[in-house]
Amino acid sequence: MERVVVVSEDAAASVSSGPSSSFAETRVICRVCQKQFAQYTCPRCNSRYCSLTCYKGHSVQCTESFMRENVTEELKQIQPEDESKRKMLDILRRFHLEEEMESNGEDESMLSEELIQKAISGDEIKLEDLSDDEIKRFRQALASGELSKMIEPWTPWWKNPSAQSISLSHDGTQLIRQISTDDTTLSDPMTASESIIHEIPEGPESPLPSLKQLTRAEPSPLLTVHLVDILYSYCFTLRLYNGDWQSDPLGASTVALSMSKVMGDGAKPETVSEALTTCIEETCSPAYRHTGGFRFAIGLVDDIITILSLGGNAVVCALCDFHRLFQAGESILKEDKMGETEKARSFKKLHAAGRKLFFMTCWAHEQPSEAWPSLARIVEVQKAAFEELDSGSGLRKAGRKNNPQSKVLIEEV
């Protein structure tokens, strides 16, 4: 029987000059699990370890130092004259100039008092009942977001106090489900199933597989950047639909794909700045200007920061909710009567986005807890840079000179 000899680190170092040095080093036991042979060395503390899992657990100081260095490197890349800054300035100039032009014709876009009262009272309004002038004013008010004053603002789940205590098991599934504490509800066992509060999106319904089960390749280091793009699209879609994407899953998934270039176009942004700039540009485009433009976009960046600050469990729940949105969109699409070619193309896009979200969910579940506040800090710094560009562009006041209150589709109060 062959006898395996375990050599200590000191002994391995002492034979480093001989032909058997490589053999000796491969026989060093991992300092973390004490089970496998160590193949790697931590560059900070020189501890020997066998896998990524053992590296993450070998020293909190080392992993925190690693994340701090990543943040520092990311901040160094934010140059005052980089391409993202120039692109953002162009976006701001176009947005504020268009806003100024719209403000000049603001009086023409106001709804008549009679039409507003009809809407408030709940009376049915049909286009054929309106004059040509009223139809024009109605469509202008709809595009400008003026009708949003009649909608009760939605409070995002990530701003709910219960979001601070999301619990997921080791395999990603939900640990704690909140139920109503109302006495009348609890007294009737028949309504117990209806007492579940869906304030926070449910976590994975089944255990999440490990990344090693999904792919043999190492995950791209750019996944953190792509996550920012995806979370922006998620927050945008939920706020656009006032939290009720279930009312139109296919429309909501279409909007999400148009906003997320990572999921919709297969884009691969390399920095957080690049990812956010592209998202903000789409938000300020003619298709979505009625949502509130740059001010609304900055609010969405705040939403991303909040979700990341809540930690990995909140990120996983957000991605699961987004995944369910696309699954619902696929189901609706199957029943749609559009042409087979167009349906197949749309179904392929939705399915691909769903798979990407599932992979991202599994990846997020395996990330160390210290990764999220670090990423939140990077997004926060980038948000401050965008706001500084906006305030220094010289166009913000000009664009709102005659319109002190910006036009926001849905504003939290």
UniProtKB/TrEMBL annotation:
Question: What keywords would UniProt list here?
Answer: Metal-binding, Zinc, Zinc-finger
Q: Does the keyword Zinc-finger apply?
A: yes
HIT-type domain: residues covered: 30-62
Q: Name one GO molecular function term.
A: zinc ion binding
Q: Name one Pfam family in it.
A: SHQ1
Q: Does the keyword Flavoprotein apply?
A: no
Q: Which SUPFAM superfamilies match?
A: HIT/MYND zinc finger-like
The record's section on PANTHER family has: ZINC FINGER HIT DOMAIN CONTAINING PROTEIN 2 PROTEIN FON -RELATED, ZINC FINGER HIT DOMAIN-CONTAINING PROTEIN 2
Q: What is this protein called?
A: HIT-type domain-containing protein
